[in-house]
């Protein structure tokens, strides 16, 4: 497992410059565009980076598998297929967490520059940015966990087409769930409120983390099963 994970990290290191560059660009654009909204808009850049990182690293790693026959060569290495699957999931989670932490840190550094726009550099603001970024990352990770078995079953190109449809369906479901006419949306808004209690935000984020962890375990088990029977 450790050797498989180190192999994945070696690949991830080659992807860091491109993903980090895209993330920095998105962070700067969204932060500048939403700074006029005050505290509520300052987390936009960090949330966007936190949300995009899991999907980008998943598709980038899958694309690397498809290049130069790496996937077939890796199958000849002294790694069990279960180790390969677990290492892939762990590398996606670790990279996503690092990117989310980096985005939050950049946001904290940027806060003093927007005091004139009504943004306050308080502990409450920092906490809300961190919670929003963590929630964005966890929700994106859950989408990745739903799509990841497709990549191990069908390969990069076919799974990419299927995952686009899956993400579109999940997006429509999310919009329907968060619609103002939906009782679930009203219930969530009543919990969060305009000025949510930090304890409530922490509990909500912890609940999302538990759901993500459970989905990760299920997805990893499914991926392991389908990858074992796949003919490389």
TrEMBL record:
Keywords: Membrane, Transmembrane, Transmembrane helix. The keyword Flavoprotein does not apply. InterPro entries: ABC2_memb-like (IPR025699). Coiled coil: none annotated. Signal peptide: none annotated. It comes from the Bacteria. The chain crosses the membrane at residues 12-35, 41-64, 85-114, 126-147, 159-179, 199-222. Pfam families: ABC2_membrane_5 (PF13346). This is ABC-2 transporter permease.
